[in-house]
Write a structure and sequence with these properties.
Elements lengths: L1 H16 L3 E4 L2 E13 L2 E7 L2 E4 L2 E4 L2 E13 L2 E7 L2 E4 L2 E3 L1
Length: about 100
């Protein structure tokens, strides 16, 4: 039980500390660079219509002219999406 509380508390702290990059409806010229180091971290989306992004870059409805670079080192991590229409991205680039 003690270990479960540590994992949950650690997950919440990490989720609050690590934020991915998100762009929507933008005109991007040049480079988008995300350098991420996630260690012993959890990335969880639970419920309905939720998204969890850690060390990730997400670009939607945007015009991109240039490079999108994501350098991510992920170790001993969990990336979980549970439920309807959920997504969990860790150390990734998503362009829609």
């Amino acid at each position: 039980m003690k270990n479960s509380r540590k994992v949950i508390t650690g997950t919440i702290v990490v989720l609050l500390m690590l934020v991915g990059s998100a762009f929507g409806g933008s005109k991007i010229e040049g480079a988008v660079i995300n350098k991420s180091k996630a260690k012993n971290s959890a990335n969880i989306a639970i419920g309905k219509n939720n998204s969890a992004n850690m060390g990730s870059t997400s670009i939607q409805n945007s015009e991109v002219k240039g490079a999108v670079i994501n350098k991510s080192k992920v170790k001993n991590s969990a990336n979980i999406a549970i439920g309807e229409n959920n997504s969990a991205n860790m150390g990734s680039v998503e362009i829609q």
